[in-house]
Amino acid sequence: MSYRRLGVNVDHVATIRQARGVPYPxxxxxxxxxxxxxxxxxxxHIRMDRRHIQxxxxxxxxxxxxxxxxxxxxxxxxMIDLAVEVLGHRRAPAxxxxxxxxxxxxxxxxxxxxxxxxxxxxxxxxxxxARLAEAGIxxxxxxxxxxxxxRASRLQGVDMVExxxxxxxxxxxxxxxxxxxxxxxxxxxxxxxxxxxxxxxxNLPELVAAVPEIVEYNIGHSIxxxxxxxxxxxxxxxLLEIIRR
Length: 245
Ligand code: PXP
Hints:
Blueprint: E1 5-9, H1 11-20, H2 27-37, E2 41-45, H3 57-64, E3 69-73, H4 77-87, E4 99-102, H5 122-134, E5 138-143, H6 147-152, E6 158-164, H7 166-169, H8 175-188, E7 192-196, H9 204-210, E8 216-219, H10 221-230, H11 232-243
Parallel strand pairs: 1-2, 1-8, 2-3, 3-4, 4-5, 5-6, 6-7, 7-8
C-alpha cells in the first residue's frame, strides 16, 4: 500500500449546481462516490462569495463523509468562526479529526492565485491556527514552495503545509526543483507535506516521482472535468493508480 493520499475536491460539483440554482448535482453525493472509489479525504473550499460550496453544505459534508473533511478557507474571523462551529471537537467516523487548510483569497479572483504569505500575515495566520487547534481541528497552510514560507509555517497548531503546484502545472520548468526543496525542508521541520492546484492525470506522474516527501494531493478541477467524460469513479481511480506507483 502506498503512503500517499488523495483528497478529492468536490467544489466544482457545487459550481454546476449553483449555475442553475437547483439542488443538483449534490457535492455530498460526489463525495460518497469519490470515497467508494478510494479517495482518502474529501476537500472543499468555502469562498467569501460562496460561488460554489455553501454554508449549508459544510455540516452535510461533515456528516456524510466516511474518511475526513478538509475545508479550505481564508484566515478571516468569519471563516474561522464557521469552521469552529461546524468542525470543532468533531471527529470523522474513523476517529480522526477534520482539517482546515488556510488559503489566501482576493475578492474577484477566479481561483486561488498563490500561497499564503505567512510572513506578512503572521499575526492573522497564527491567531487563526491557534483557534482552530484549540477546537480540535488540524491545520494546514497553503503556501508557495519557498524556504521562507516553509520556515514561517512552523506555528503552534500547524502540522502540515500544502505546497502550491500552480506554477508547476503551468509548465514552469524550475518548479519541480523548488517543490522538491520546499518539501524536503518542510519534512526536516516536522511538517507533513501536501500539494495541490492545477494537478491532472497528465502532470501528476512526474511530480509523484520527483517529490517523494509529498504524502497528500488535493485535486479538484481536473477530476470533475474528466468525470464529465469518463465518470467520477474512473476519474478518481485513475489518479489513485498514479499516486500508488
Ligand atoms: N488546494 C488548494 C489549497 C486550493 O485552494 C485548491 C482550489 O480550491 C485546490 C487544492 C484544488 O485545485 P484544482 O481545482 O486546480 O485541482
